[in-house]
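Throughout our pipeline, every protein is held as a single compact record rather than as scattered files. Nothing more is needed to write down the fold, since each code stands for a local backbone conformation. The record that follows is passed on verbatim for readers who wish to inspect the format.
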Amino acid sequence: MIPEAYRTDHLLLLVGTNPLPNLVAAELLLKENGTLYLVYSTETAPVADNLKKYLLARYKVQLLPAVKATDAQDIETTLEKLVRGLAGSIGLHYTGGTKAMAVHAYRAVEKARGGKTPAPVFSYLDATTFELRVDPAYHEKVLLEVKPTLRELVALHGNPLRPRLPDKTTILLPAAIALAQAAPGGGLRVWRDWCDKILRQDQIHTGRDWRGNTILKGVTLSWPDDPILNEVVATLKSELGLSLMAKDLPLSVVQLPRGLQDLKHLCKWLDGEWLEHYVLAQVEAVADQCGVHDYGMTLKTDEKQAADFRFEFDVAAIRGYQLFGISCTTSSDKSLVKSKLFEAFIRARQLGGDEARVGLVCGYTDPHSLEQELSQSWDAQGKIKVFGADDLPDLAEKLAAWFQTA
């Protein structure tokens, strides 16, 4: 708990490209009934505007005129004028904004107060240690003190998630677990080959039912015949209401489990969505023990909303204010898994800032070497994690270690 001496009546927040540190500072450093002042440049004006809209639900917020990010006189004049007119305690949180803004805002507040008491409180949020640092020497870990939901985290950027997202509903989970158990030793590769050579080829035979829904007409898929997938096939037959002696998957008469919209959806699940459902279940299994307070599948912003920020993630979790974004692919192709991870890395930093961590669950057979290679080339040591086919049976345990140590 932050000492009351460091909480102020007026809190100035420097706004950078990511608003998350501002939310953390507001919750930790503003007194009840206090006022927030957003200090921003022309470049970060959209971020400040979105942040104000979000914070107004909880706090009194003032949006100052935009300052020139590298103009010392403009920054100091604007803030000196503001601070001289304020009564009560004053704080400046300088995590966001440019370095020039931080330096000149600091000088302006010091000058405007001119030795008056109480002295201004200057603070910074360390993204490496998750510490709130108050000058000159106070520091405290605050990672678990502020706990926005995934929906709130996305809303900070001005574009909400689609309704009913993030999704926490798993489909055909016993079959997904069987696939994960078969992954080591080639099971995932055999399944991927079946999807590419059989499933995807037959998905072209489509039509529409009387409701207008896309369906598969009269398609029969032969099951994978490799012994390594025997348990997978048996589980799928049971889940789909087929006889254990059935040699084919007759898509035109199959029993759709709850949660599947149509037969096309079933084929998408077989083709790779099963991995997302499996990963979600493993996150759910360890969430409480790891302090993960929100998680879900299919994080996707609402395309109907007019906003510059667009976002999508396969699976995500949040622990305190630290985002964990997880991308999923059954592919073992190195170039493809690298591109998936890079895309996820960029999106996670946009959404969760420097504190965010990114994981990839994939079919690549040497995930450790790939993780080391990309950590060095992207200067992302400690920020990315790659889980391969051999990790799938024990994924819950490995996710728990990652959540608690990342």
